[in-house]
Amino acid sequence: MNLFGGTIQTLEHSLNYASKKNNTIANNIANVDTPGYKAKKVLFKEVLAEKQKESISGIRTHPQHLPIGGASNGPMAYKVVKDNGTAYNHNGNNVDIDKEMNELAKNQLFYQSMVDRLNGKFRSLETVIKGGR
């Protein structure tokens, strides 16, 4: 049984993505003065664009069902990549602390909004269990 039509699972994947992004940003900030360190970032939009190019067909459970396609099966992936193309400091380090702090703030807002949405789903479930009270 899939409660809320998969919404909770999607929110879980969103929280996992935000957590991974937060850890990556924190590592970049921690290594802001490390000689030769190259900043890393978590890519999602690029992975999404790749997935949208793939042709996926739906499972037909009845011969009269129309064939469908487009939606990906399973969670959307993301990947962590290293930015080797730049060097902002004389020691080969390319961490821009202002950019990292900005990304951290945006990611914290995203994470909190996902937590709030997940809490709302659980409150809805609690209301149903209590019989609408």
Description:
- It is a single chain.
- The protein is mainly alpha-helical.
- Helix content is 50%, strand content 6%.
- The chain has helices at residues 7-30, 45-53, 97-129; strands at 40-43, 79-82.
- The chain has a two-stranded antiparallel sheet with strand order 1-2.
- Helix 1 (7-30) runs antiparallel to helix 3.
- The protein is flat and about 65 Å long.
- The chain starts with 6 loop residues before the first helix and ends with a helix.
- The mean pLDDT is 83.
- How are the strands of the biggest sheet laid out side by side? 1-2
Instruction: Note poorly predicted spans.
Output: none
Distance between the termini: 24 Å
What is the N-to-C succession of helices and strands? HEHEH
Q: DSSP strand (E) fraction?
A: 5-15%
The total count of helices amounts to 3
Q: Largest sheet at a glance? A: 2 strands, antiparallel
Give the overall shape, derived from the CA principal axes: flat
Please provide a brief summary of the model.
The protein is mainly α and 133 residues long. 50% of the residues lie in helices and 6% in strands. Strands 1-2 form a two-stranded antiparallel ribbon.
Keywords:
single chain, 133 residues, mainly alpha, two-stranded antiparallel sheet, 3 helices, 2 strands, 6% strand, flat
Q: How do the strands and helices of this protein lay out in sequence?
A:
Blueprint: H1 7-30, E1 40-43, H2 45-53, E2 79-82, H3 97-129
Antiparallel strand pairs: 1-2
